[in-house]
Amino acid sequence: MGMQSARPLTLSFLGRRHDFPTVARAVDCLRAAGITNLSLDLIYGLPGETLDEVAFDLASLLSLSPTHFSAYSLEIHEGMPLFRKGIREGADEVLAEHLALIEEEAGRHGYSRYEISSFARPGFPSRHNLTYWKDEEYVGIGMGAAGYEDGRRYVNPSLLVPYLNKAPRSEEKVDARAEREYFLLANLRLAEGFSLSSYERKCGGSFLEEFASSFEELSKEGLLLLEGSSVKPTPRGMNLLDRVLLRLYNDL
């Protein structure tokens, strides 16, 4: 469920028509119907948003005791109404500070951060999310849905009539470079990272040899680490994942 915020002005800014009491009532209704595995979404990183405001929204979310929640920074793309108003996304350092606060407070309430944007109580990580982030194959069903099957990534037609008429979907044959990019983009979102053997099995090479220079630099900066036979992002590395990926992609 998209809670997004508990603050009326923030919800209005985002163009949302609900309020926090509505979310709380919806959660109660679901539980009364026997649905107890609930996930809520939170948005942070709004223009001028303070750490106290992020903490207030998070405390409101946690008061509903979901089994899982996701926290996403506000994304503003060209063409969006907010973009046309001159509003831009927050700086990486500010967003990282907000996310660090969310992670610390979530941990105090029994949630672990298993993926860059997702937090779960023990036993409740999203199987749906993990399929994506372990770069496994999945079927895209519905208009505009993306899928990954037999080494091909595709997107279904986004409009109803072409979809019903079985118009061709857009497809991408994944080459060796793209395979590595997708693998790193997905797996480094996970707190557990990836095993060296899984990289070799999926990409057909040695991660430590192919990315020796960048991995050494990122390790010294405290963004990546080698733990046993697994490469993992540090908490700071997860918060600055774009920086990590750009550095690694330079080695391809």
Q: How would you sum up this structure, described in words?
A:
The protein has 252 residues and is α+β, with helices and mostly antiparallel strands. The chain has 13 helices and ten strands. It has helices at 8-13, 20-32, 51-62, 81-84, 92-108, 127-133, 160-164, 176-187, 196-203, 207-210, 212-220, 235-239, 241-249, and strands at residues 39-44, 68-73, 112-115, 118-120, 146-149, 152-155, 170-173, 194-195, 224-227, 230-233. The strands form three sheets. Strands 1-2-4-3 form a four-stranded mixed sheet, covered by helices on one side. Strands 5-6-7 form a three-stranded antiparallel sheet, with no helix packed on it. A hairpin with a 2-residue loop joins strand 3 (112-115) and strand 4. Helix 3 (51-62) runs parallel beside helix 5 (92-108). The longest helix is centred in the middle third of the chain and has 17 residues, at 92-108. The model has no long low-confidence stretch (mean pLDDT 92).
Give the helix/strand layout.
Blueprint: H1 8-13, H2 20-32, E1 39-44, H3 51-62, E2 68-73, H4 81-84, H5 92-108, E3 112-115, E4 118-120, H6 127-133, E5 146-149, E6 152-155, H7 160-164, E7 170-173, H8 176-187, E8 194-195, H9 196-203, H10 207-210, H11 212-220, E9 224-227, E10 230-233, H12 235-239, H13 241-249
Parallel strand pairs: 1-2
Antiparallel strand pairs: 2-4, 3-4, 5-6, 6-7, 8-10, 9-10
Helix pairs in contact: 3-5
